[in-house]
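Ligand-bound model needed. adenosine-5'-triphosphate.
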Amino acid sequence: MNPKIRFMNVSKSFSLYRKQSEKLFDIISLKKDRDQFFALRNISFEVNEGEAIGLIGLNGSGKSTLSNLLAQVIPPSSGMIEIKGETSLIAISVGLNNSLTGLENIKLKCLMHGLNNAEIDQIKSDIIEFADIGNFINQPVKNYSSGMKSRLGFAISIHTNPDILIVDEALSVGDQTFYKKCLDKINVFKSQGKTIIFVSHSLSQIEAFCERVMWIHFGQIKMFDEAKKVISDYKKFINWFNLLSEKEKKNSRKEMLDEQYKVELIPSNSHIQQIKRKSKKSNVAFGIQILVLLFVVILSASYMLL
Ligand SMILES: Nc1ncnc2c1ncn2[C@@H]1O[C@H](COP(=O)(O)OP(=O)(O)OP(=O)(O)O)[C@@H](O)[C@H]1O
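Prediction:
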C-alpha cells in the first residue's frame, strides 16, 4: 500500500531557556550546547490513505508536538517526514488570528490554503453556517469563547478540503450538538478516502471512529495497533498508574522525563517532503496572498492602536 504519511526516525527536541536573553544569545552566537529536551525521539511510522488514526497518551507525552510536525507548523530536529497532500490542523489555540474578525479569519485562512477570491466567495456562507456563531462572525476572535474558536476553526478547515485532517483536542470544547455535527462531517471525510489524525483524551471518541491508535509515552511510540487493543492496554496502564502512591507516581514521571533529556548521537539532518495534490499557487498568486496578508495585519494593528 502507498503510505500517505511516513515518519522515519523523526525526533523533535527543544532547547530549554531559563531567560529570554539566553534564547537571544543562542540566536546571535549560533551556540548549540544548551540543554535539549526530546519531546519526540526517533519515531517511525506510516499511515495509509483513508485511515483514521487516534493519538493517545498522558499529558506532555508528545501528541501535540506530533500533530504540529504533521501540519508542518514546526520542523523536525532530525529524521525524515513524507506527506502526500494538503494538511489542515484544527486545534483550539492554533490558526486563528485573535485581532481579526471571524470573517477576516475565514478569508485569511482560505487564502493561505491557496484558494482564490471566487473560491472563497463560494464556500464563505457554508463556513459561516457550519460555525453557527451568529453575529460574532463580525467580532474579533479575541472576544470568542474557546467553543466558538473551535467552531470557526473546524468550519474553515473542513471546507478548505484538505487531504489530511488533523484534529487536536478541538472537539473537546464544543457542545454536544456541535460535536455530533463535526463527527458527521469527519465521517463524510473518511468515506471520501481522506486521512484523519485525531488527538484526544476521550477514549470513547477515539474508539468511535479510529481504526488504529498510536499510544505515545514520554516521546516514544509505546504501541501502534488496532484501536481496541491499544485502548485496552492503555486503560490497564492508567489503572496501574492510578494505584501507585503519589510518591511512586512522581518518581515514575521523573524517571521518564530524565530519559527525555538524554542526548544520544543522532544524525543532524532533517527533511520534510510534502507532495501536494495540485499546486494552485502560482508565484504571482502567492505574492498577492502575501500582500493581502500584510495589508490585513497592518489594518488590524492600526485598528487596535486607534
Ligand atoms: N516549545 C517548546 N519548548 C520546550 N518544550 C516544549 C515545547 N513544546 C512542547 N514542549 C514539551 O514537549 C513535551 C510534549 O508536549 P506536547 O504538547 O506535545 O504534549 P501532549 O501530549 O500534547 O500533552 P497534553 O495532553 O497535555 O496536551 C512536553 O513536556 C512539553 O513541555
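The longest helix spans residues 283-305.
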